[in-house]
Amino acid sequence: MGVDGRLRAVVGLAQAMAAACAPRDSVRAAARGARVAMDGSFAAISAWERERGRLRVLVNEGERRAGEEEFPEDESYPVHDFPEITEFLHERWAGGGGPHAWVESAVGDRPGRRGEALRRRGRGTCVVAPIVLSGRAWGELYVARDEGMADFDEDDAEFATVLAAVIAAGLAQNERLEEARRLAFTDPLTGLANRRAVDMRLDEALEEHRRTGAVVSLVVCDLNGLKKVNDTLGHATGDRLLERFGSVLSLCGAMLPGALVARLGGDEFCLVSVGATADEVVRVTEEVCVRAAELELGDGVACGVASTGDPIGPVKSSRRLFRLADAAQYKAKAARSPKPVVAGRDTAVVRLADAAAAAAEVEGERRRFRGRS
Known about the structure:
- It is built from eleven helices and eleven strands.
- With 373 residues, it is of the alpha+beta class.
- A hairpin with a 2-residue loop joins strand 5 (123-133) and strand 6.
- Helix 2 runs antiparallel to helix 5.
- The longest helix has 31 residues, at 154-184.
């Protein structure tokens, strides 16, 4: 590949990483772009996990051999098996620079794990390029050619060093985007999802409900006694109560696969479940009530449940599910119930929610009428 071809390959790699919608897609785009740019038959990108002392493979791309999965669950190698990388694993490089790539061969005077792996998998030569992110060694790019193909040379190693730098820039951009997404959909105090994330999840869940009939359940929780804790012990203590209840809700929510646990704001939390039966959600919510009552701060929690698995009528929007769960929660709070109140199993809750919806509609009409006069 000539200079112009390599330049186009570098641009294509950067564009493919930028267009990826998820971290996994970005890493795959990086490996594929590097393999094509290097005219290789196989490429892999691995991350160095310092705390475990291992090199973990994130993606295998191209002509894979037996045992090489595209996205391996746990393909990793101890770093001490690769003495050539340990010398710069803990170093830092200013200005985004870093170590150069090098070439390994299945034959020659340089024995080692990589040469053995090349021979075992029918590959003749490979280039290894360290990936440096924010001045620290992040991982490596590995590109190989099958036996019978031309061997990589030092010019190829120089080019691989450039590709590794482009990949590092793409990874840094993806990390910034992921952080922005996390901040946009996360409650900063508890680390749980926020109202924006709940609205998106509920819209997706109700679409799945309409398409497949999957049961969608919403649990709304109101933490009792937060104001008293804030007034008597201070807001820092109140924040600890919110964090501890968030942990309780997360722990219980984990009993429902795929459930989303969130803080709506103030002392209000919620849980969104898709697929679990209404009875399963109610049992988990009962556990939430028990554990919240055992917290040394506050005065337990009031919980309301609304589920399409119960007789609550058609649910055309998340607004109706919220109204039903809110009405159930209000009733639980008023009665100081130690257990959740469930819409549909308590018919008064459905009537209360429908009355609230009707009142809101009337008020909306009045506002529109006043706006026309």
